[in-house]
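Hypothesis: this fold can be encoded by more than one sequence.
Test: take the structure tokens below, design a sequence, compare later.
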């Protein structure tokens, strides 16, 4: 037996099992291998998008990455298990010819066993290889079961994310539009109810994103479903209400802080997808439209200091937007469109 080949097979098998468990069962996001595979594929799609100018390429990102993760687990388990049998020339025997098997025969046998289809014309030679074959059969069954149970909650969480995004977009497609839509002539108190309804939903998505970081790579070209843009607009609205609007005219401070913390619970999960604050700080919004409506807007050194304290937060939001294949300017291009496109099938 070639112990080096056998050891490599064992290490690779254990690494794959650890990655599978951490990604699908731990509730802590993707494992070491899946995390880097996901980010690499996403970066390639971003490059293709920039070269072709077709943002819809990113719409396929989530599905491509999800399928790639599942295929990667299968291939790594297949390769590692094959190495175990290849390490010993007499591990398997051809029943028809009663002769040792080739490397190709061993690879075929391993795949056949993992698929739970049976043994075929090749059988293990000896008790150790009999037990290993049984383990591989169970591994194949477990892999199929985990794949199915992993797909369903991810898809459900993605639907929830798009629901939150559309909910935010119905408030308004930009910071100024949201604020103007809810200015009743004297204050912004009417924002309290929609803000309260968003708190639990955003917290739930934050936990889903923490458990299934692949959710980050599900992209939508539809502006109403663009979660990254709509969430950033919502966070900027909170910034304006907390620092640019007199407290007596804004919604309840408690509601604002609760919603802010809910968004923060999502933002702290972003480093798991390799998103960190950049060096560039996004520009502060010029609230001319509010002032034209007679709304009092606070400015000055005190407000500037408050924005300075939010520098890391806003840089993180900018990095998030860029990683979604968009720019900060896209935040102001989302007025809600009430028209229905009948050219697409329902």
């Amino acid at each position: 037996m070639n112990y080096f080949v056998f050891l490599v097979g064992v290490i690779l098998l254990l690494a794959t099992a650890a990655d599978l468990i951490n990604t699908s069962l731990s509730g802590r996001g993707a494992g070491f291998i899946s995390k880097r595979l996901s980010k690499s594929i996403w970066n390639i799609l971003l490059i293709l998008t920039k070269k072709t100018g077709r943002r819809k390429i990113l719409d396929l990102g989530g599905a491509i990455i999800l399928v790639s993760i599942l295929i990667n687990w299968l291939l790594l388990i297949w390769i590692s298990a094959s190495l175990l049998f290849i390490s010993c020339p007499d591990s398997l025997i051809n029943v028809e010819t009663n002769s040792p098997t080739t490397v190709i025969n061993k690879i075929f046998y391993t795949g056949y066993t993992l698929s739970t289809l049976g043994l075929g014309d090749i059988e293990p030679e000896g008790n150790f290889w009999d037990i290993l074959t049984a383990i591989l059969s169970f591994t194949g069954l477990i892999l199929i079961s985990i794949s199915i149970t992993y797909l369903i909650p991810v898809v459900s969480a993605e639907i929830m994310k798009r629901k939150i995004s559309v909910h935010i977009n119905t408030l308004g497609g930009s910071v100024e539009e949201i604020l103007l839509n809810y200015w009743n002539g004297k204050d912004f108190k009417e924002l309290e109810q929609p803000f309260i309804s968003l708190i639990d939903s955003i917290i739930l998505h934050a936990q889903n994103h923490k458990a299934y970081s692949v959710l980050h790579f599900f992209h939508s070209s539809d502006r109403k479903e663009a979660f990254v843009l709509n969430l950033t607009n919502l966070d900027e609205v909170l910034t304006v209400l907390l620092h640019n609007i007199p407290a007596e005219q804004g919604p309840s401070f408690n509601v604002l802080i609760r919603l802010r913390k809910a968004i923060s619970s999502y933002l702290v999960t972003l480093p798991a997808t390799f998103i960190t604050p950049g060096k560039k700080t996004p520009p502060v919004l010029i609230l001319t439209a509010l002032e034209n409506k007679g709304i009092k807007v606070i400015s000055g050194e005190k407000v500037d200091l408050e924005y300075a304290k939010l520098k890391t937060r806003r840089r993180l939001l900018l990095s998030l937007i860029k990683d979604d294949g968009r720019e900060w300017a896209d935040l102001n291009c989302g007025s809600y469109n009430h028209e229905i496109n009948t050219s697409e099938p329902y």
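Confidence is low (pLDDT under 50) at residues 342-346. Strands lie at 92-94, 99-100, 122-124.
Hypothesis status: open.
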